[in-house]
Amino acid sequence: MTCLGLVTVVVRDYDEAIAFYRDVLGFELLEDTPIEEGKRWVVVAPSGAREAAVLLARAVTGEQEARVGDQTGGRVGWFLNTDAFERDYERMRAAGVSFEEAPRREPYGTVAVFRDLYGNRWDLIQPNRTDGLSP
């Protein structure tokens, strides 16, 4: 069996990124291990997630720093699935998450675009399909 294990989000600072993902989005901090010269292996995931997680990687070069907040050229790059859209949308708004739009219904589910603390675009989505994948 194979599965997607981690995706990387390049961040400016480990601790501010951990605080946002844990305290604002409600993710769990799965690992925070020092590795070398100020680098850390920092993994967060939505509470209860069983497969994919997010590796928070601190930018260490000018090229990486330039990508913080715009890793996908302005497109939505990550999709946070939920089984209760209204609950999570309201919780995230109350925690200060910046949504770009009101929730909308699409053929694949209910969705609203939000930005993380650096400006990366995410979808909060409640898929219509029970497997959580878009058509």
UniProtKB/TrEMBL annotation:
Xref: InterPro entries: Glyas_Bleomycin-R_OHBP_Dase, Glyas_Fos-R_dOase_dom, VOC_core
One Pfam family cited in the UniProt record for this chain: Glyoxalase
Domain VOC: 3-127
Superkingdom: Bacteria
Protein name as it appears in the record: VOC family protein
